[in-house]
Design a protein that fits this description.
The structure is a homodimer of 260-residue chains. With 260 residues, chain A is an alpha+beta fold. Chain A is built from six helices and twelve strands. At the A-B interface, helix 3, helix 4, helix 5 and helix 6 of A face helix 3, helix 4, helix 5 and helix 6 of B.
Chain lengths: 260, 260
């Protein structure tokens, strides 16, 4: 399995992904699922991949080849973000079709992508590109997109992410979302990759690859555990706890107690 | 869908359940999924149900009828918690079999239960009873059991619940787990039922049914949101944030800045 997410806030974009791939429990491996494509000061794209690893690797290879080719559609030449998402959906379905035609065993070649970025002078955007090649964008009410093992890490995003959330805070929230998923589900694993892209900074964003033992990742995980403990301890008591406490205080003060 | 959970800590047991049932999106309804059976000072049981509503209602009816009947196995007569779980698995599969034999449409009559309680002089226990009638208990490493839409509410349990967790804190943690699930998934809905059973208090436990507008439930939900906000704000900054802050302070102080 996989867990990837992207967040769009007013200040920019956040992308995050785990790195575990598996084909059965005895074929577990680590691959980066985050790919970025940059033309300095002109355009910057990030692709997060989930699904069949052969398909996703072929898509990334094709994106690079098209961009180096002088003619034809490519991320280098698309006129806007929508056209870029559409281009990506097209090459994904093309690559799947080739594999399906070769296949004799009804295998699953599907891949799902989160894709986002910015073209100079335009708004940043994020998309979820389905295996069928069509795609959706985020919305102001739901300013994030997820693929893979999405449920464990959704509550924190639902509670914390709004369009006006500060960019780096959104980045930390993405790390917490992935950290929670890794703790709860074995098929999602480190290193965790994070890319924080400030709007209009068309030079590649800030990218981190965090292993389990990375001091920053550990500090963040420890701080979150401590924060959760504190939040739990700050919840209101049940009414009988107040009564019990009062009863105890009265008892300690030596007053007579009636029994109920 | 459904979300039910039970927690076993040293001080006792916690049971919690949502109340939404549906048979398609145009047949959404509210039913209690929590049933308790008490023989004062002798034994106390709680049953949380998920799955086919006709099956779960028939199981509860059968449990009551057997307990009022003088002869035969029943929750009133079983010798220990294991025998109680086994009895429950038996009547669940019996009831499913009757329905399957009548059925002409390959319908799904399966039901899954969380079952727990205590018999005087014995240890409290919780079980997850599968549709096949077999069952598992919790463990010290994993002192909780969940059924239904379990993923959204699992990270908080993974982080917070240990055998030595204080009983009422475990109860609040169960409410947070359900609250997060309700926020993230439409098929899980209030009222939320909570039952807190202190070990050896064989007189029924403390039971709450919390609607969305219940003042305690709202206070808990608000306090948790505030706690999460605080926890997020307490996470360590990325290294470049420190640099940016330093750069900003230097700039504000009027010192010359080199550009990188």
């Amino acid at each position: 399995m996989t867990y990837c997410l992207a967040i769009k806030v007013d200040e920019g974009l956040v992308f995050a992904s785990d790195s575990r791939t598996n084909a059965g429990v005895d074929h577990v491996s680590t691959y980066s699922k985050m790919h970025s494509f940059s033309w300095a000061d002109n355009r910057f794209f990030v692709l997060l991949s989930s699904g069949n690893l052969a398909t996703t690797q072929a898509v990334v290879k094709r994106v690079k080849a098209d961009s180096e080719d002088a003619g034809g559609a490519s991320l280098r030449t698309v006129s806007d973000m929508d056209a870029a998402a559409n281009y990506l959906g097209k090459i994904s379905t093309d690559i799947q079709r080739i594999q399906v035609e070769r296949d004799t065993a009804k295998s699953n070649f599907e891949a799902t992508f989160i894709f986002g970025g910015q073209i100079a002078g335009q708004e940043p955007a994020i998309f979820l590109v389905y295996p069928q090649g069509n795609y959706i964008h985020e919305s102001a009410e739901h300013p994030f997109l997820q693929v893979g093992e999405t449920k464990y890490g959704k509550p924190i995003l639902d509670r914390a992410i709004r369009p006006n959330t500060q960019l780096e805070l959104a980045g930390r929230c993405a790390l917490v979302s992935i950290n929670s998923t890794i703790r709860s589900n074995l098929t999602v694993g480190p290193p965790v990759e994070l890319l924080i892209f400030a709007k209009d900074s068309l030079n590649g964003g800030r990218r981190l690859a965090l292993t389990e033992n990375d001091p920053f990742y550990r500090a963040l995980s420890d701080a979150w555990n401590e924060g959760i403990r504190h939040a739990l301890n700050g919840l209101p008591p049940f009414d009988w706890e107040d009564e019990l406490k009062t009863a105890q205080m009265v008892q300690e003060a030596g007053y007579p107690q009636s029994m109920g």
